[in-house]
Amino acid sequence: MKGHPTVGVEEEFLLVDRQSGEPVARNRAVAHDAATQGVELQLELTSCQVETTTAVTSTSSELHAELTRLRRITAAAAANQQAHLLAVALPPTVPHAFPVTTTPRYRRMADHFGMLAHEQGICGCHVHVAVPSRESAIDVSNRLRPMLHLLLALTANSAVYRNADSGYASYRSMLWTRWPSSGPPPYFESTGRYDTTVETLRRAGAVLDDGMVYWDVRPSAHFPTVEVRVADVPATVAETVLVATIIRAAVMCALEAQERGDPMPRYPDCVLRAANWRAAHDGLDGQAADLADNCSTVPAQVLLMRLIEHLRPALELLGDYDMAREELTRIAEQGNGAMRQRRAWTRGEKVTDVISELATATTTFK
User: Fold this and answer.
1) CA atoms within 13 A on the CB side of 366
2) Suppose 31 and one of 10, 41, 80, 86 were both cysteines; which one would form an S-S bond, judging by CB atoms 3.0 to 4.6 Å apart?
3) PANTHER family attached here (predicted)?
4) Rounded to whole angstroms, how far apart are CA atoms 169 and 242?
């Protein structure tokens, strides 16, 4: 297994009022404040969201330090604007509206997609891993398709939505499927087939540009990377580091398999969507689909530990095998985002308890 590809992470966050917990349209003010501390935030589709982008990193410890720095500065900038920064994939409260950020691209999206754009407030996590070429990115994407649902179960962080338990660990992923280019991607035989498919979506008006190709894994539109987009934004830095480390190791193994010419399973799109649905519904503390056994259900934690064992050669090269096993065990015991939300909600069905739990988790850096 040759080389250690670099990794970078984008995290999207929600801005909420410190008293009511309702989303607040203050992303420009927060971004201006963060810029004075040397952090450039991206403005998201709605003005109650911001996005951080790490530097390119080479180790999990570097990534942890970067994510900690960005969350700490951004949370302080939000506090200066009387807002909480929440690492949560959907707003737990009932918002009056999600005003669209006033940039030409976002206004165009809002005009074209209507309420689909206005009813957002959806926050994900995007992991970029360097690959040698665009052709490699297509092949790696194909090989990663069967494990995407497990990454969703691991990071599920949108159980409470609009002052109610949604019935899903990741309700974000259910709402996200309304976009016509979302979900598990098709299997692509070549870059040409990928480009033809994207152009077809563009001609149909289903996407307006390459940035709107929202598949769960794709060649990056801007970087020489494969980009995995399936995850809810994780509640804590440690969870983000774990999912990024697993993805990095998976890309390394996929590149090795590509070099050897190993065949890859071609599961039907409907099977992958079913696996995603089950992962979104149950999350980390429930059942997940075992694709290798005709979608029989197995505890998600068992399948994730099997995935770590499958990726062990790459994880050991990275020096992260023990960390990955220990972190998965710890997160399963302490709870990922969805589990934290539900524990807080069941204390009395008070959304303020959920907001408080999420605000604490967002700035938990151990």
Assistant:
1) 4
2) 41
3) GLUTAMATE--CYSTEINE LIGASE 2-RELATED
4) 18
